[in-house]
Amino acid sequence: MKRITIKDLSKFLSLSTSTISRALLNDKNVNLETRKRVLDAADQLGYKPNLTALNLKSGQSKTIGIVVPEMITPFSAKVLEGIQNALYPLGYRLVITQSDENPVIERKNLQLLEDFNVDGIIINLCHETYNNDLYQQIMDQGTPLVFFDRIPGKSLDVSKVIVDDSINSSLMVEYLIKTGRKRIAHIMGPQTIRNAVERANGYKRIMTKYNIFDENLIISTEGMSFGHGKEAVQQLLEREVKFDSIFAFSDTLAIGAMNFLLENNIKIPGDVAVASFSGTELSSIVYPQLTSVQQPLKSMGEAAAGLMLEKIKDSSAPNRTVLMDAELVYRASTL
Amino acid sequence: MKRITIKDLSKFLSLSTSTISRALLNDKNVNLETRKRVLDAADQLGYKPNLTALNLKSGQSKTIGIVVPEMITPFSAKVLEGIQNALYPLGYRLVITQSDENPVIERKNLQLLEDFNVDGIIINLCHETYNNDLYQQIMDQGTPLVFFDRIPGKSLDVSKVIVDDSINSSLMVEYLIKTGRKRIAHIMGPQTIRNAVERANGYKRIMTKYNIFDENLIISTEGMSFGHGKEAVQQLLEREVKFDSIFAFSDTLAIGAMNFLLENNIKIPGDVAVASFSGTELSSIVYPQLTSVQQPLKSMGEAAAGLMLEKIKDSSAPNRTVLMDAELVYRASTL
DNA sequence: GTGAAAGCGCTAACAC
DNA sequence: GTGTTAGCGCTTTCAC
User: Fold this and answer.
1) Which segments constitute the HTH lacI-type domain (chains A, B) (predicted)?
2) I need a labelling partner for A238 at 20 to 30 A (CA). Which of A24, A251, A317, B22 fits?
3) Interchain contact, B84 vs A97, CB within 8 Å
């Protein structure tokens, strides 16, 4: 099944390849008649441009690398959908890698992507700081890097797509307070994740404002899995910390926590209300449905793709930060 | 940040590009000394092969298209992980598309993939039959097509990776029977999905064998979402069909069903046991954890990639069916 | 053991 | 308005 090339069309129509090319590209310097003949023949013979040849010509690989911490929750999938929506129509392909919340794997992934000659990398960090050297090196080499959700520390000037972690956390905690909860525990995730610290800050600020802050209510976890969420609650109980609600760093941690509560016959939200930050479909899949700060994941993906395209078009484009609005969605777990 | 090419090395070492190329490829016809010089220089200058050029030369796009019905559950993500494990080391990139359980979108996706000049397509169907013409056409054009999980009807001879839907369903239903359940409802999913019919067959066979088959216990759904699972149970209740357990076509339908039960204060598994078929992480995320037929998703992805590589290497390779073992995992929802 | 040259499919100066 | 030519980065005959 040999593919039809411009050469084939050229022979078929007894025209030079350049004329064919021009006709196909809607170049003005082509007789209307000729263009029509070319287009018809292309259609008839089933001509399709060879993207590889185009890429070689343009010096691009038309491949974007993606690094995400995990793909178990629909978080990354949703963002990817946005990225794909933006990039597929432009002929970009993807190499999607997962770091499994492990900086070492993240490093390997980035190196893999370099081997792929990617035109750029869109990344959601697993932990801050560990690989800052590599991020910088990649950018220095001229490969655009765009961050979303979990971003590196302020020491690195980068393009990024985020929501305001601190403010949205404050809003969610304030909502819990307004519903009458006073002992709000916070499962904050690993302290090496920048957003975890930000969200904890938002939590602290509002708890302090209402004069109900208690250091003991905060518990950080080693990792981001459901198991870590469970453990966190278990620890709170073991330490005999009293709490009437939980605000968790992520859907995953929250659901882990919920499961532990349910296993121990603690009613949600009767005994303990639960709220989280993420906004994945998981929050409406579990029972009771989970109140959560909903991030506009698909739009975030589209925005990240947009920043990437900017950088690809003009490598000297300034780094930009896109701050997206999140939405508090109230569900059964707090009502 | 100009990339180093073979030409650069050639100038740098005053050697012809062909010698550089040979040295890099470990061709025997190169002086050992020369090879070492080349390798050193390549390392020093940071040479990396241009994959696009390689691809143009070899006539491949080194891109594999993927079509999956959805990415909300971790099902596809797991399979993808297997595919990626197998294909990334070989330099393949992916274009992953979602059909949203919609044959029309599936069609568009396939056409998009053709435009990408993919070397092959790995696909998990949304509904059988609708696009058989297109599958055939794609294969006729010489683009290898490998199916997994949801496959087309027998009329199409294709390479595929599956588990035995019928037998595993029988086993799961028999397990429910052995735990004392007699009124086992089956939420079977849309009848246009081949696997749904297969799994229903497995269900029927074993129910009949034990003389407890009742047509009323089977309910098919319009779609595959959580909502459809809910609706199914609701209908069973409305029809006043008595049941002490549910066997669902997928985790998603099962979880939707579970949520409806819980919302109506029906105890799981006390009043109604629930089991499903899929084997995604979702089954251990929900509460109570869900008994399920666990498919070896990652391995299935690897197998599919393997079949694809076979076809790419030798387009006349015969179609093969890889039948994988599934595992029944018993969790709280049936204990 | 090494070099020169052609060619993968396409576009874009540069002619005419 | 159309054709000729060179070249993107690489491999691979074909010479020597």
Assistant:
1) 4-58
2) A251
3) yes
Assigned domain for B141 exists: yes
Within this chain, do residues A77 and A91 fall inside the same structural domain, yes or no? yes
The whole domain housing A175 covers 165-295
**Torsion sign across C-alpha atoms B5, B7, B10, B14:** negative
Backbone angles phi, psi at A176, to 5 degrees: -60, -40
Q: For residue A1, what pLDDT is reported?
A: 65
Query: Which residues on B lie below 8 Å from A45 (Cβ)?
Result: none
Based on the domain organization, do A67 and A149 belong to the same domain?
Answer: yes
Residue A331 located in a structural domain:
no
Q: Chain B residue closest to A95 (CA)?
A: B93
CA of A16 to C1' of D4 (A): 9
Please say whether the beta carbons of A254 and A243 come within 8 A: no
Half-sphere exposure of A65 (CA within 13 A, CB side): 27
pLDDT of A2 > 80? The answer is no
Distance CA B167, CA B326 (A): 10
The identity of residue A16, as a single letter, is S
Identify the residue whose tokens are 């509460």.
B287
Structural domain count of chain A: 3
Tokens standing for residue B23: 């040295």
Judge if B273 and B306 occupy the same domain. Answer: no
B171-207: pLDDT as tens digits: 999 999 999 999 999 999 999 999 999 999 999 999 9
Among B51, B72, B287, select the one facing A281 at the smallest CB separation.
B72
Nearest to B71 among A77, A112, A284 (CB): A77
Q: Is the CB of B51 under 7 A from strand D?
A: no
CB-closest option in A91, A117, A262 to B48: A117
pLDDT in tens, A14-68: 999 999 999 999 888 889 889 999 999 999 999 999 999 999 999 999 999 999 9
Residue B270 in any domain: the answer is yes
Burial of A193 (0-12, 13-18, 19+ CB in 10 A): buried
Q: How far apart are CA A256 and CA A276, in angstroms?
A: 11
Strand pairing class (B245-248; B218-219) = unpaired
Question: Which regions in chain B score pLDDT beneath 70?
Answer: 1
Determine, yes or no, domain membership for B333.
no
With residue A64 as reference, give the H or E element that holds it: strand A63-68
Provide, as residue numbers in chain B, all residues whose Cβ is less than 8 Å from the Cβ of A60.
52
Question: Tokens 């995320």 map to which residue?
Answer: B285
Q: Which residue has the tokens 């992916």?
A: B94
Is the domain of B221 the same as that of B127? no
Q: How many residues does chain B have?
A: 335
Cβ–Cβ gap A88/B98 under 8 Å: no
User: Residue A27: its pLDDT value, please?
Assistant: 86
DSSP string, B2-48: PPP-HHHHHHHHT--HHHHHHHHTT-SSS-HHHHHHHHHHHHHHT--
- What does each C-alpha distance from A45 to A12, A14, A40, A50, B309 come to in angstroms? 10, 15, 9, 15, 28
In the structure encoding, which two tokens stand for residue B33, read together? 């000394």
